[in-house]
PHOP2 phosphatase
Amino acid sequence: MKFLLVFDFDHTIIDENSDTWIVKCAPEKKLPNELRNSYRPGRWTDYMDRVFAYLGDSGVGEDAMRSTMAAVPFTAGMVDLLGFIVKNKEFFDCIIISDSNTVFIDWILKAADFHKVFDEVFTNPAAFTSTGYLTVQHFHTHHCAKCPKNLCKRKVLEEFLEKKLEQGASYTQIVYIGDGGNDLCPVTFLKKGDIAMPRQGYTLEKKISQLSQDLRPVECSVLVWSSGVEIMSYLKLLLNK
């Protein structure tokens, strides 16, 4: 029996939003107002596809993007945490569910040599066209009214666990580590023996707290973190039980 670690990516593994970090590649490191104002709630992926088209039109190529993404900072203590997980992979299955994209996550993890930590990455598919433009698509379609149009993290987690069960695998405990509003939906799916680890001061912590105030607390345990070292301390406790 293993533990399943589920990670968000932006503002969790890395200390930035990978999608806004890429703007450092843009002319004068900013986007035109017309483009910035074109974002519509729940349609971030469509907005980013327009951002990538603008970068392509501006002559920003794959090499410039890759070197920019390789410089994104990891969240405090996260390098130590991922190093610890690598050394204890026999106890942990580890996945990412993120609203970033396959290209950015792959670049960042490979630049830091952390791609072996994760068994699977669920995120919006991205690729470069033959003309050198980066494009991104929705991860899937779903019917969850609480989540962005392109991604319901709860649906991803449910389908992952169903697939594992079919393969004869189940988990002692699920540990969900995230920060954002779109992490609440999968957290409400977690059961009594599981644990949600929201990042201190971020939206997920506030939303979980609000549910408790509304007398609709989540079923799982909640442990707030501000550094990957705190998450690592909890995982060490799990292994010593």
